[in-house]
Amino acid sequence: MKGLEFTTGGESHGPSLSIIVRGIPAGLRLDLDRMNGEMTRRQHGYGRGGRMKIEQDRIEVTAGVRGGETLGSPIAMTVRNRDWENWKAAMDPWAVDEKEAENRRLVSPRPGHADLAGGQKYNRRDLRDVLERASARETAARVAAGAVAKELLYELGVKVSSATLSVGRVGDPNRPVTAKDMSEVDHESPLRAIDRTVEGAMVEEVDRAKLDGNTLGGVVAVVAEGLPVGLGSYVHWDEKLDGRLAQAVMSVHAVKAVSIGDGVTAAGLFGSEVHDPIVHQKSKGFSRPTNRAGGLEGGVTNGKEVVIRGYMKPISTLRRGLASVNLDTREPHRSQWERSDVTAIAACGVVCEAMVALVLASVMREKFGGDSMVEMKRNFEGYRGQLRGW
User: Fold this and answer.
1) DSSP string covering 38-77, please?
2) Would you state the pLDDT for residue 1?
3) Cα end-to-end distance, the chain, whole Å
4) 345-to-46, 316, 319, 334 alpha-carbon distances in Å
5) Which end of the chain has fewer CB atoms within 10 angstroms, the N or the C?
6) Cβ distance 301 to 231 under 8 Å?
7) CB-based burial of residue 146 (10 Å sphere; 0-12 exposed, 13-18 middle, 19+ buried)?
8) ∠287-292-296 over CA atoms, to 5°?
9) What pLDDT is stored for residue 88 in this prediction?
10) Helices (H), 212-344
11) CA separation for the pair 218, 215 (Å, rounded)
12) Quick count: other Cβ atoms within 10 Å of Cβ 68?
């Protein structure tokens, strides 16, 4: 059985973003308000740029749903770019105004961005052709796809959530993280910090970076609760769930490292300090009193919460610029600045959530199949009954 598949299309300042999700069974009732709530969460966060004042991201479902229920066919969605009105002349798919295109051209590529490497790869001398797709605006489409995946997971009792552990040098990226911690996060707070006592210092860190014309990264945590034992596989390298999750989170813009459980800190400890003991109780069966493995052993879920950390580098668009080269003159030149964020760490957590949800929904589909939600839930409950027999 295939799992979920999704694809996105669209440029940052094009008319819209397009999303297609395949593999959702028929009969899943979607909560559009909840889905659009995910879009709002992605736009939130202290340190965001002016673009967030223009956009008001909403999901428009155009196929695969009738009367609020999925049909089993591909689900097509659109997210409009309101800023398109300001960029029509330069970004129209058919008739580009040459003068406006020249005004919008990126002459000095940004270190750390896809600008130069992308231009060389696709032979596009106007780097606008690269940066428009490489922009993190694309993550709005991923969150829309992830919102559909979350609806499937909700139906099966699985919840995925995230929080900010650190911004720059403020916070503790290695602190233990649980679903209970996530339930106590204030998602309306400036940075959705897991530790409210340091959130004020995080805001000050962002303010300092802004005054300096600089940017900041940080660390986010994603926790998935309610997963059964046995998702993923140890049999083939590409079926190991930890590898699939790591790739999904690493694919998020500016994420340069991923850790599962205590993966980073565990590298410097003894085995006796790392591995989770196994216990058995007649009433509860097998369990582990700790979760240093982050819910995954041998690429397979073990019934504990899945815990993932994503390490986001500072955004590569700096107001003060970085050392670069003018593509026309080949002379040294500061990289150009385009309206951008000081940090997008709060949004990064939401995007990582979406990617984790998409992977988890996919492996649930692979294991439990079903053309309809009734069939899939029946298979799921049958497997849970099998596990209770252990």
Assistant:
1) HHHHHH--TT--THHHH-----EEEESEETTEE-SSPEEE
2) 63
3) 26
4) 9, 13, 18, 25
5) C
6) yes
7) buried
8) 70
9) 94
10) 241-250, 263-266, 271-274
11) 11
12) 11
Residues 289-310 pLDDT 10s: 999 999 999 999 999 999 999 9
Q: What is the mean pLDDT of residues 268-274?
A: 95
pLDDT of res. 25: 98
348 in Cβ contact with 252 (< 8 Å)? yes
Both structure tokens of 319 = 């107001």
pLDDT band for 43, please (50, 70, 90 cuts): very high
- 350 near 35, Cβ under 8 Å? no
Cα dihedral 112, 115, 120, 123, rounded to 10, equals: 170
d(CA 37, CA 7): 21
Mean pLDDT of all residues belonging to the chain: 95
Position of tokens 């089993």?
Answer: 72
pLDDT of residue 16: 97
Helix-helix angle 345-368:241-250, to 10 degrees: 150
Instruction: Name which of 18, 16, 32, 38 is nearest 65 in CA terms.
Output: 32
What backbone torsions phi and psi does residue 365 show, to the nearest 5 degrees?
-65, -40
Give the Cα separation of 269 and 285 in Å (integer). 29
- Strand boundaries in the chain, DSSP class E: 5-9, 16-22, 60-63, 65-66, 69-70, 75-80, 159-167, 170-171, 218-225, 255-260, 279-281, 285-287, 296-297, 300-301, 306-312, 323-325, 332-334
Structure tokens at 101: 């295109």
